[in-house]
Amino acid sequence: MEVRKEAIRVTWLSICGNTLLAIVKGLAGFFGNSYALIADAIESTSDILSSFLVLFGLKYSTKPADENHPYGHGKAEPLITFLVVGFLVASAVVIAYQSIRHIQTPHELPEAYTLIILGAIIAIKETFYRIVLNKSKKTNSSSLKADAWHHRSDAITSLTAFIGISIALIMGKGYETADDWAALVASVIILFNSYLIFRPALSEVMDEHVYDELVSEIRIKSKQVPGVIDTEKCYIRKTGMMFHVDLHIVVDGAISVKKGHDIAHDLKETLQKQLPEIAGILIHVEPGEE
């Protein structure tokens, strides 16, 4: 499946990018006396692990349906997203704890060159965020969306570090802990982003109705099929990157059962051809007035 290949390619891009950036941040933070940068490196390291989880989830969730999983393996995706959120929360807690420790411990001012490194990291991470988020929208992947928000939270962490180090360098002696405070603020932002990622994944597991746009599209296209008078109930559940639909249609009550079956069959073919993101559709035929 092409969407699966696209999602996997962009996930490998995330893994390679995060690995390189984690090394750069860690070295720059250690030699540049900046815990905010070290905290950033910790966050990037958790990104690498979570991206590998996303990669596993993408491969497993796109396995075809079998006897034990008639709807496929798509529900693995939001479960992987929960694990990714767990990594985010864990990294936020570690960053917050270490920040508080460093605030209480006297240390030297950060080096000025760390600002240049942070500026480059912010630009790279924001670019990664936009690329991965765009792919998540094209593939309907919740775990890929979580991976995109990892990049955004990383960019935010770097931005707070940039502000903190700038304050420390401008204000001078007595403000050495400004970048530590920045790391503490970043941990709170990461926790908030964790909730933003967790909520849609929970919605997917609970089959919450959040697909009004797709429902409208299905209703419009259904009425264009000969024999379909109207549509009634339309329920959608998401499994991985695909959707399963339960649809009630109204046909002429005077036609034969076979004719009603043929109309439903034509409708199913039409919808799956025009909306390839629909993996399966169950159509119930309701008789209209003769």
Structure write-up:
This protein has 290 residues and is mainly α. It has two domains: 2-205, Alpha-lytic protease prodomain-like; 212-287, 2-Layer Sandwich (Alpha-Beta Plaits), CATH 3.30.70. It contains eight helices and three strands; from the N terminus they run H-H-H-H-H-H-H-E-E-H-E. The protein has helices at residues 2-31, 35-61, 76-103, 113-139, 142-171, 178-205, 212-223, 257-274, and strands at residues 230-239, 242-251, 278-287. Strands 1-2-3 form a three-stranded mixed beta sheet, covered by helices on one side. Strand 2 (242-251), helix 8 and strand 3 form a beta-alpha-beta unit. Helix 1 packs antiparallel against helix 2 (35-61), helix 4 packs antiparallel against helix 5 and helix 5 (142-171) runs antiparallel to helix 6 (178-205). The longest helix has 30 residues, at 2-31. It is elongated.
Write the layout of secondary structure elements.
Blueprint: H1 2-31, H2 35-61, H3 76-103, H4 113-139, H5 142-171, H6 178-205, H7 212-223, E1 230-239, E2 242-251, H8 257-274, E3 278-287
Number of strands: 3
- Alpha-carbon distance between the termini? 44 Å
Spatial strand sequence of the major β-sheet: 1-2-3
Name the helicity range.
55-70%
Task: Give a short account of the largest sheet.
Answer: 3 strands, mixed
Which fold name corresponds to the CATH topology of the largest domain?
Alpha-lytic protease prodomain-like
What overall form do the CA principal axes indicate? elongated
Q: CATH-wise, what's the superfamily of the largest domain?
A: Cation efflux protein transmembrane domain
SSE string, helices as H and strands as E: HHHHHHHEEHE
Oligomer, anyone? single chain
Low-confidence stretches: none
Radius of gyration: 25 Å
Kindly estimate the percentage of residues that lie in beta strands according to DSSP.
5-15%
Query: Helix segment count?
Result: 8
Structural class: mainly alpha
